[in-house]
Structures
1.
Amino acid sequence: MAYPAEEMKAEIEKLKKKRNALNHKYKTKMEKYTDTQYKLVFEVRDHSAGESIVKMAEEENCDVIITGSRGLGAVRRTILGSVSDYVLHHAKIPVLVCHK
């Protein structure tokens, strides 16, 4: 089934606005930390979220990965998988998981 081009364009624009809002939100939050080096990256890749985070951290030579945890229950996490769990077990650098 083909996805209508106009709907796809509208969805892409909506996602770009969301990305820009998130970028602005976190840049604003980080402005007060002038002694901290950081890089915000919003990118779409052809991998799972966890795999993409680990690969990007390696490519960018990151010192640490900080990720969140949505607090899924054990059953949902087992069925759906957990991005933070994947990152924690596959990253070669320290990972800090911030719980909800």
2.
Amino acid sequence: MASKLPTQLATARSLDSHGHHSKPKPSSLSWRTTLSSNGVVPSPLTSSNLSFNGLPKRAVLPVVRCSGAAVNLGPGTPVRPTSVLVVGATGTLGRQVVRRALDEGYDVRCLVRPRPAPADFLRDWGATVVNADLTKPETIPATLVGIHTVIDCATGRPEEPIKTVDWEGKVALIQCAKAMGIQKYVFFSIHNCDNHPAVPLMEIKYCTEKFLQDIGLTHIIIRLCGFMQGLIGQYAVPILEEKSVWGTDATTRIAYMDTQDIARLTFIALRNEKINGKLLTFAGPRAWTTQEVITLCERLAGQDANVTTVPVSVLKLTRQLTRLFEWTNDVADRLAFSEVLTSDTVFSTSMTETYDLLGVDPKDIVTLEKYLQDYFTNILKKLKDLKAQSKQSDFYI
């Protein structure tokens, strides 16, 4: 059933008017919810509720309430299926999702935080930009008016507590989406998140998956392994600039994927009604260790890397020390990934069934070798051209 625009408008007003929150009560992290006439509220705690293993009890999230009056409004103008809201649109994945959506003819609205430097590139592409903040639930409802599908690419900034955006903000967003009749919600998670409850971000991703499944929204959950784009700043650029490349002695393997491919497969899944409610995992053609990635970059750059190896044991010790102080807890949460590095986990999975489900040819998926080869070819050509221009200038001087 198509959602109705007047209903969404009335619900948005009601959500705004109930933006105040009661004082939070201590509890464990929980995805359990119950629907009431006042909206979506957390249910009483049960033994099945999740909590951060070994970490202090977390607070119950602020509840975004809406009055029941909006439900009784008459039918209105159906919301177009091509209207999408991209949350986290300025990020590595989010901007590729926006670009793909516009190329495929979607009406794209981007939710971005107010910032000194506005996201003008999104407007230049043809998207509509609206300011809101997931940490301020009262700013969310207005961004959902007239929206059919929410694509959630957001994650917290490095300087923020992990749970602020990735748990509390996401719960508020999902509650608002449910209350306002959003027709579909796409959530990006992390592969193997259900196997690492000691890593806060991965446990939060798993809890958010469960919360989304239980709340009753039509949804698609996509677990990701790693982005190829992240390797440029981490390895390729430092090698070209003859700077130190930081790595670990871990043997963890990651099947990196081009975010453009992730965006393309996401919209194929979005158009396939048979995929509603499913959990998919997107992985690149091959899983790589850190050392293998560095070796590949060295070969393509034609020069050796200055590698500084940090033993995983040092990262684990650092995490234990930072957990001793409240003001360094956020650092400890992010260093928790050292637990993943020592587990010899392979962040990859067979894509055969997913390719068949989506009707995608595996040959159309970019390999890491091809991605990095294109990058180094282009950047080395530009450096060569700049060097030639410099020589011409010297000649005329």
3.
Amino acid sequence: MNKRQNKNHFSYFSFLDMPQKDPCQKQACEIQKCLQANNYMESKCQAVIRELRKCCARYPKGRSLICSGFEKEEEEKLTLKSTLKFC
């Protein structure tokens, strides 16, 4: 591979390695705005929290860093349900 090809080769991979915008970033920002406007009372922001959950449900696990907290929460619920079956 000559220098010109090599340069293009690295440019191509650099493009692939660029971080992508999180698909649920907009909803996460809306939650932050809502919480700030309502003195961090989650009960006042349930509608925007539901919108974030809907967004997270549209993407495969691991696609959204923002959704990773919800994914962990779901895993914990499943573990708890399976544990309760044995009681």
4.
Amino acid sequence: MAEGDNRSTNLLAAETASLEEQLQGWGEVMLMADKVLRWERAWFPPAIMVTSLLLLPGLNQHGIILKYIGMAKREINKLLKQKEKKNE
């Protein structure tokens, strides 16, 4: 019985070590993303804009931009209708 427990403990330790190794690089990415979202540096906003502009052609190719434009139009129309009802 102790051998089975020892084997499962070793397996769990190996899986944990593997997962920890896989996630090691993401910690640095998350720290950088946090810094960007908090705009800790003056050049972050322009860097985000340039990066976004580079992604636009790929997003447009897959129809993602048109999808979000359509969603935005529907929301704007919904808000305008609510405003009209409120004014009546």
